[in-house]
Amino acid sequence: MADFPHLSRRGFLNRTAAVGGLLVVPGLLSACSKTNAGAADGEGALDKLRKQGFVRVAYANEAPYGYMEGKELKGEAPTLHREIFKALGVDELKPTLSEWDGLIPGLQAGKYDVVSAGMAITPERCANALFSEPEFISPTALMVRKGNPKKLTDLASAKAAGVTVGVMSGAVEGSYAKGAGIAEGKIKTLQKPQDGADAVKGGRIDAFLLTGISLRWLARTNPDTEVTEAFVPELDGTKQFSPGGAVFRQGNEDLRDSFNRELKKIVSDRSRYVELLQAYGFGATEIPPATLKTADLCKG
């Protein structure tokens, strides 16, 4: 089972407002955008992929979003993208491993055609690449001891019960807890997901706050815990959907648009979406609302 690399996970969780922060090197992005190798293949990009029979995808080896298990590329993004590209007449995904902060620069440099890593959609990233419509949202949940002895359901119930809540160091969940009115002395900082699970099992905290996606994956190897139903927290009155999607090179609008048409068929079919992705901790609560649009997310 793949681990949770600190860099990429912190980059996804340390987000602002409804969409998130940026974990890239601006200077590198600017340099790559000037050369933008491979951008000339924008028109007819899908036809070229069909002729060659494969699409080059980049992943960051981060479970459950996109990772290699043995010789097989697995995770939310590769599973969804494999289904979509097959429908578009491209039968094979050819994977390339990349560091998280090298994903967009590598895309711009023409090293691959799509980022298949569950990347959060942010205005900063939209300035350097094309995003699909949201593939998923990342509602929050609580990991608790088996049986949920405090009967917790969300942050309001955690506040009412006066429990101690754990959050990841530097992650936005700490601001969610404070925003819900949980006293600072009742919020404990942890360094990595397994630390949170261990603290729950050891009784040092009553609940561990993280995305439902990550917690359900974590619970697979921590059987003495359970995960509450996911919920969408609010911060300063704004719902925190934290959506992610596929990423394409600028100039490949035709490929992005074709991808979106097939993606819509899947996210509009609740049972199909869940069947495809439930093995990776994604369920109906991760289906993006039809009103959540990338064009709006890119505006901030």
TrEMBL record:
Q: Give all residue intervals belonging to the Solute-binding protein family 3/N-terminal domain.
A: 54-284
Signal as a keyword? yes
Protein's UniProt keywords contain Lyase: no
Q: What does the UniProt keyword field contain? A: Signal
Recall the taxonomic lineage recorded for the source organism: Bacteria, Bacillati, Actinomycetota, Actinomycetes, Kitasatosporales
Q: Signal sequence span per UniProt? A: none
Which SMART domains would you find in this protein's record?
PBPb
* Matching Pfam families: SBP_bac_3 (PF00497)
What protein am I looking at?
Ectoine/hydroxyectoine ABC transporter substrate-binding protein EhuB
